[in-house]
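Quick illustration for those who missed Monday's session on complexes.
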Amino acid sequence: MENSAIPRFAVISTLSVIVAAAGPVTFNLRDADGRFHPSSELTQSKATVFVFLATDCPNSNSYAPELARLYKDYENRGVAFYSIYSDPTETATKVREHDREYGIPFSALLDPHQTLARETGARVTPEAVIVSSSGEELYRGRIDDRFANFGKTRIRVDKHDLRTALDQVLVGKPVSNPDVPSLGCAIPGLNQAEPNPTFDKDVAPILFHYCASCHRPGQIAPFSLLAYPDAAKRASLIAMVTASHFMPPWKPFRTMANSKMQIT
Ligand code: HEC
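Prediction with heme C bound:
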């Protein structure tokens, strides 16, 4: 049986591609009270659950009661729980207030550089990841099947995927379904087709090709543009002069200016 919920946010499903975990999950993240939590803490529990949340996502907010139940049922069996906030705009204060209001009983870690989201492959909220005491990723995906499809909520939850995975982990069995796509709100910035441009790979070749003939020591331009600091401190000026076609002096290249020159 299904009824229609009205999510305010675009609901998307996670990529079903398992992100190749190249090694143990590593992190060193600050919690909402300012304390650091390094990945060495994983060894203190049989397993650790990271639940990716967002303060403004109705999908993940609707899970607050189930998160409290999960904590009550598994914490005393050696499972550690953290909520993870990977939207860079979330602040410690906002997260603390949110978790208090929704009664989330475990620590919140702030992941402003999205390292843990990248390491684990989490892409939406809510999404749960189980990591072993040695940092191996054992499960990633939905908490249960309450969201049937975009905008559709099941009245009865049938599949408790996170609980099933935890039960298997705790008796030393392999997780039968280690990657179950989750429906939720996209974690901003992680679903782009192209990764963020980097200086060495994307920007430097352009500067060398179009600018360095004049912008190098001893040439006519007033400063060099050969190294990252030279370019980075003039990033907005560079964006302006290339967009306005003032630079390079003889050739407009609007597309490049727009897509590559926003080094900040
Ligand atoms: C043919 C030589 C030449 C090339 C090629 C060239 N520049 Fe310049 N650039 C100059 C000169 C000369 C000036 C100083 C002009 C002036 O102040 O009027 C300058 C000034 C600038 C300035 C400062 C503008 C300002 O208002 O102070 C920026 C930023 C800049 N160039 C960026 C670039 C970038 C980025 C490229 C490559 C995409 C580039 N230039 C390619 C010769 C060049």
